[in-house]
Write a structure and sequence with these properties.
Layout (H helix, E strand, L loop, with lengths): L3 H4 L3 H13 L16 H13 L3 E5 L2 H12 L7 E5 L4 H8 L4 E5 L9 H6 L5 E7 L8 H11 L3 E4 L7 E2 L2 E2 L6 E5 L12 E5 L2 H11 L26 H11 L2 H20 L5 E2 L12 E5 L3 H11 L16 H4 L29 H7 L2 E5 L18 H19 L1
Parallel strand pairs: 2-3, 2-4, 4-5, 5-8
Antiparallel strand pairs: 1-9, 6-7, 8-9, 10-11, 11-12
The structure holds pyridoxal-5'-phosphate.
Pyridoxal-5'-phosphate (PLP) binds next to helix 4 and helix 5.
């Protein structure tokens, strides 16, 4: 059971889904004058927009990956452009850029484990069309600095909030700070419907473009389908009422999830703080951390590896498709067709991205000394050791003592 939401699937989700099935209205479009139509997708979009403090949300069947791709396309990102993205992220952030035809420009993360604003600014060129900030492991990035840089250069900041639904930054839900934000509702995420995603934005024109892209070019109509003039060709990433129903039940559990995770994280951190050799991730806004993970930094890569082995975990540098150096398909520039931009691109003066192991030394040096203790997410490729959503204070204490003991053993 990977993420918090999936562990809480129960009677509420069942009731919501049964309502949809017995109504017979399974598509997001239904008759607004028929009370049997529950408009679940419309309603969960309203809830998520409210949490992000913006006017528009768009539910997607295609997950966070489709959400990022559609957002970038809707911002006009395409062949010949560049998008800055951290080298520590799930590979989907990079794939979404690649399939717009733009070049992913990999940037360093700092002790926040999110984009390093100094490195981002150094990588901006006239071709930079977006900065894709990823709130990794539930921890919001340095949004003040990143937003200031984006605004200074007139470049949109897109928030990849796939791992951070429910986190806030200075009291605002992540996703509502940049030009747009994207959530994932796969099984590893805060709340889930199995697979699905959502885009949020306060920009009406961007929302209209994203809506059209997600539904065959249609103009937005949130309840009934509308055969209005179509601005351009689209695709189909419509969320179904079944997914909307599960998410409506799940989102009601969000406050309980975040309160529980934060309490457990606090217990684990307090025990670890007694060992001065254990350092912690810098959180730009500690109150807004989702607390799905507690990231620790150890004195050396050697100690971190030994501790990880001792507790049955991995260092973050070993975390599969979350680190650029382990993304073989990126390093080898492989796409489904092998044709066209960004890797096989005819556009003049296009400077291709640089992808090789060791290209982000600051990120590499940090990740090899770091381990994530799962607080509410158990993922063999990210945080195999830690707590699960249903664990309480006793398990939190035991987990902390086991980890602290392993560190003390290998410091000696
Ligand atoms: C940071 C990040 N971005 C994007 C995605 C893609 O989301 P999805 O699996 O819903 O397509 C994920 C999923 O794991 C992720 O962790």
């Amino acid at each position: 059971m990977p993420g918090p939401g999936i562990e809480l699937i129960g009677a509420e989700e069942t009731a919501e889904v049964l309502e949809v099935i017995s109504s017979g209205f399974l598509s997001r479009y239904g008759p607004s004058d028929n009370p049997a139509f529950g408009a679940k997708v419309h309603r969960i979009e309203g809830e998520v927009a409210r949490l992000a403090g913006v006017r528009f949300a768009l539910g997607l069947s295609g997950g966070g990956s489709a959400g990022l791709w559609i957002t970038l396309l809707s911002l006009g990102v395409g062949a010949g452009d560049e998008v800055i993205v951290p080298g520590f992220t799930f590979v989907a952030s990079i794939s979404a850029i690649v399939y717009t035809g733009a070049t992913p420009v990999l940037a360093e993360v700092d002790r926040s484990f999110d984009l390093d604003p100094v490195d981002v600014e150094a990588r901006i060129t006239p071709r930079t069309k977006a900065i894709l900030v990823v709130h990794m492991l539930g921890g919001p990035a340095r949004l003040d600095e990143l937003k200031a840089i984006a605004d200074k250069h007139g470049i949109p900041l897109v928030e990849d909030c796939a791992q951070a639904f429910g986190a806030t930054y200075h009291g605002v839900g992540v996703g509502g700070i940049g030009a747009a934000g994207v959530y994932s509702f796969n099984e590893y995420k805060t709340i889930t419907c199995g697979d699905g995603g959502m885009i949020v934005t306060d920009d009406e024109a961007l929302y209209e473009r994203a809506f059209a892209m997600h539904d065959q070019g249609h103009a937005p109509d949130r309840l009934e389908s509308k055969y209005a003039p179509r601005p351009f060709l689209g695709m189909n990433f419509r969320m179904t009422e079944l997914s909307g129903a599960v998410l409506l039940a799940q989102v009601r559990k969000l406050d309980m999830i975040t309160a529980h995770l934060r309490a457990n994280k606090e217990i684990v951190q307090q025990f670890l703080e007694e060992e001065p050799a254990i350092e912690f991730r810098t959180l730009p806004d500690p109150d807004g951390d989702l607390a799905t993970h507690l990231v620790v930094v150890l004195p050396s890569a050697d100690i971190a590896t030994k501790v990880a082995r001792e507790v049955g975990s991995i260092t973050l540098s070993e975390s599969g498709w979350h680190v650029y150096s382990r993304m073989n398909h990126v390093l080898e520039r492989r796409t489904v067709t092998g044709k066209g931009c960004p890797f096989n691109c005819e556009i003049a003066d296009h400077s291709h991205g640089d992808y090789r192991i060791g290209m982000l030394p600051q990120t590499d040096a940090l990740l090899e000394r770091s381990i994530s203790i799962g607080i509410g997410v158990r993922d063999a490729n990210l945080a195999p050791f830690g707590l699960r959503m249903r664990d309480g204070a006793d398990e939190a204490r035991t987990t902390a003592l086991t980890f602290r003991g392993a560190v003390q053993k290998h410091l000696a």
